[in-house]
């Protein structure tokens, strides 16, 4: 919505950082942002903003930080030249057409971002699958939430978080596992603090190898060893069974597979499970009792469950606790995966993953492919499985990807096993980087650079963690020649359609973001997320809405009727076996390194590093280690150390931190090679991932630490 007072215009939009999806009001004078305030009417935040949201205005109006014109380099060893948009778009279309003709459609890859708007995501997906003819379209959301997707699908039958933010106000017990909400979802965390203040009887259990700020409100803190959450959740369920705390009626009426899982759980006695996790048996028993005996239990979880090679197992094992106790589908209940990025959910809805198609369909399902092909007016969609993020870069390193189009993300810094990713980027014939900011380390590998518009210059929609779709509105024109992401995809698609096989011609030429949304919404008709009745007009008139949106209403909670999205309508207990991290500690690499976010930075800092007040929170990368580990190695806070493993080496100062358990070290994920003498933090992380979700184990790497001098 837009309001004009004198020379000032105020536009309602959404914060572009985390998946909380806070509403903001942006006031401009037509050329500059004058103020950004919280939108008191938005149900995600009711006017609140965190430090990042409050300073959004300081990140705008900085042309020196932006890419302003398309550039092109004709050969890898030649400098890039500024070119017109027509030349850049022709070059992209030509490179795609050549690759398709000479090497086939699967020689093309698209690597997208959970920071794109739904409309951007939808058009890139349509371009990749409907026109180019490849399922090689994946996203940086693969790195943060794909194990949550598989967890939901395995147990509940659909990629649909069943809970909502109102549940904080109704929960009697909240289990927070692998999530530093206080830093990563600060406004939600404030809501939880308020709920706890209003209901002092509420029990909060925090599970995390680090005693984070989130743990400061815990009634019970469980400092599990990295990667051991399955043992914790299995052990808790074992206790619930032995103490008759499960809801036998709910299990009998609404679930399948409990008997098989129960057999598995016999080995997870409280003592055995607690030993695997490195916590006290009594604490595990207490957690089980609080979870089961509460009138309403909510679980919140993020990367600490997802970014592991057993991420899907961890998600399923946690969801089991809700199914076994009937804590789902009621106010204050449910397993609630909090999305990290602002539109990871929207990307899942449009099929912006190699493993998804629009409307929560799957590319491996022939019926689903035929449905989308019919909607797009093409004879068929590609059946060859697509490459997920890590596989895409592995294929690129092997010379199998000839054109790689990277949009709104910085894989040279953010992907695990950085050396391999950088080698892959050097190997690709044509790397296209579509980006708003000029600080991305991936730009060094770009053959074609396409300058993109960014917040607050774009129109579209995003879906937040509670399935709520909100309008994102442009408040200012984009600087220089930067353009909206969806429009760039559309322009290339129209050119490419004219040069490749005429029988594969899905419709492009969208006039605006509303038209893209209208087409996308039709792909959800009849599906679990159905919001085919939503439009920009409805969002304008009724405000943000939660899917599914049927009979003129959004849906706050799912599965209240006990009917799940599985073939049988029953939720599934999965026989989850015990596995732990892939990168095990050894005599050579004895420390367990884990990674995470800081309160005031976002991803690779292209935006937050522009704001001095944010940078001041933590000014430089540091390795945090337990004081006992420092002492053992005769190190002191401030010493420069070398952190290494078989994948890479980085240099940074060390700091004593007793919020870690001994044997565990921590580095914030934000800094790249520029701050660390060449290689970034992801030089150390592993590309080994979860076999189901294909999400890499970014949260754990075995490393060695020693005193160092810069090389
Ligand atoms: Fe933005 Fe997330 Fe902070 Fe809300 S909580 S203001 S969405 S960063």
Automatic annotation (TrEMBL):
Domain named 4Fe-4S Mo/W bis-MGD-type: residues: 8-64
UniProt keyword annotations, A-Z: 4Fe-4S, Iron, Iron-sulfur, Metal-binding, Molybdenum, Nitrate assimilation, Oxidoreductase
Cofactor requirement: [4Fe-4S] cluster; Mo-bis(molybdopterin guanine dinucleotide)
Signal sequence bounds: none
Family from the record: Belongs to the prokaryotic molybdopterin-containing oxidoreductase family. NasA/NapA/NarB subfamily.
Entry protein name: Assimilatory nitrate reductase
Species this protein is from: Vogesella alkaliphila
Phylogenetic placement of the source organism: Bacteria, Pseudomonadati, Pseudomonadota, Betaproteobacteria, Neisseriales
Interval of the full protein contained in this chain: 1 to 711 of 894
């Amino acid at each position: 919505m837009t309001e004009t007072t004198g020379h000032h215009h105020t536009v309602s939009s959404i914060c572009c950082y985390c998946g909380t999806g806070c509403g903001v009001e942006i006031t401009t004078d037509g050329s500059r942002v004058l103020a950004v305030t919280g939108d008191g009417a938005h149900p995600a935040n009711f006017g609140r903003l965190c430090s990042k949201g409050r300073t959004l205005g300081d990140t705008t109006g900085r042309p020196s930080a932006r890419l302003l014109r398309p550039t092109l380099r004709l050969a890898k060893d030649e400098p890039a030249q500024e070119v017109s948009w027509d030349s850049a778009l022709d070059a992209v279309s030509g490179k795609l057409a050549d690759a398709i003709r000479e090497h086939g459609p699967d020689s093309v890859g698209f690597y997208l971002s959970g920071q794109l708007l739904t409309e951007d995501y939808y058009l890139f997906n349509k371009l990749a699958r409907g026109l180019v003819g490849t399922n090689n379209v994946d996203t940086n959301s693969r790195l943060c939430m794909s194990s949550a997707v598989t967890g939901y699908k395995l147990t509940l039958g659909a990629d649909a978080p069943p809970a909502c933010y109102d549940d904080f106000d109704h929960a009697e017990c909240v289990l927070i596992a692998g999530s530093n909400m206080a830093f990563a979802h600060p406004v939600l965390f404030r809501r939880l603090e308020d709920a706890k203040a209003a209901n002092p009887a509420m029990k909060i259990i925090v599970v995390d190898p680090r005693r984070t700020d989130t743990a400061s409100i815990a009634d019970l803190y469980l400092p599990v060893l990295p990667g051991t959450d399955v043992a914790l959740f299995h052990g808790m369920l074992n206790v619930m069974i032995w103490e008759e705390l499960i809801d036998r009626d709910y299990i009998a009426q609404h679930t399948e597979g409990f008997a098989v899982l129960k057999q598995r759980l016999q080995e997870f006695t409280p003592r055995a499970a607690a030993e695997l996790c490195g916590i006290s048996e009594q604490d595990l028993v207490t957690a089980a009792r609080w979870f089961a005996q509460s009138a309403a239990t909510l679980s919140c979880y993020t990367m600490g469950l997802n970014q592991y090679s057993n991420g899907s197992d961890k998600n399923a094992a946690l969801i089991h606790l809700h199914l076994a106790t009937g804590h789902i589908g009621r106010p204050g209940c449910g397993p609630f995966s909090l999305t990290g990025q602002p539109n990871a959910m929207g990307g899942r809805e449009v099929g912006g993953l190699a493993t998804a198609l629009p409307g929560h369909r799957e590319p491996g399902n022939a019926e689903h492919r035929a449905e989308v092909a019919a909607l797009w007016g093409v004879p068929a969609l590609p059946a060859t499985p697509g490459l997920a993020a890590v596989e895409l870069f592995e294929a690129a390193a092997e010379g199998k990807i000839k054109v790689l189009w990277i949009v709104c993300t910085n894989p040279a810094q953010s992907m695990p096993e950085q050396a391999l990713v950088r080698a892959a980027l050097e190997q690709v014939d044509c790397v296209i980087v579509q980006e708003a900011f000029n600080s991305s380390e991936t730009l060094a590998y770009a053959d074609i650079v396409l300058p993109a518009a960014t917040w607050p210059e774009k129109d579209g929609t995003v879906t937040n963690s509670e399935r709520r779709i909100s309008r994102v509105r442009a408040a200012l024109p984009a600087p220089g020649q930067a353009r909206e992401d969806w429009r760039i995809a559309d322009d290339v698609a129209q050119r490419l359609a004219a040069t490749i096989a005429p029988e594969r011609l899905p419709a492009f030429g969208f006039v605006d973001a509303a038209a893209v949304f209208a087409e996308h919404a039709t792909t959800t008709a009849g599906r679990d997320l159905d919001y085919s009745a939503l439009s920009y007009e409805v969002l304008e008139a009724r405000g943000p809405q939660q899917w599914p949106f049927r009979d003129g209403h959004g849906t706050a909670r799912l599965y209240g009727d006990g009917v799940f999205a599985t073939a049988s309508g029953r939720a599934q207990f999965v026989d989850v076996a015990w596995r732990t991290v892939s990168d095990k500690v050894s005599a050579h690499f004895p420390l367990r390194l884990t990674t995470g976010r800081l309160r005031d930075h976002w991803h690779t800092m292209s935006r937050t590093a522009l704001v001095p007040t944010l940078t001041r929170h933590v000014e430089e990368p540091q390795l945090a280690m337990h004081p006992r580990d420092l002492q053992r190695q005769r190190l002191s806070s401030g010493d420069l150390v070398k952190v290494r493993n078989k994948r890479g080496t980085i240099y940074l100062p060390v700091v004593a931190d007793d919020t870690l358990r001994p044997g565990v070290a921590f580095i914030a994920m934000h800094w790249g090679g520029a701050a660390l003498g060449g290689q970034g933090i992801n030089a150390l992380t592993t590309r080994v991932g979860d076999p189901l979700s294909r999400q890499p184990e970014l949260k754990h790497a075995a490393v060695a630490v020693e005193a160092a001098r810069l090389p």
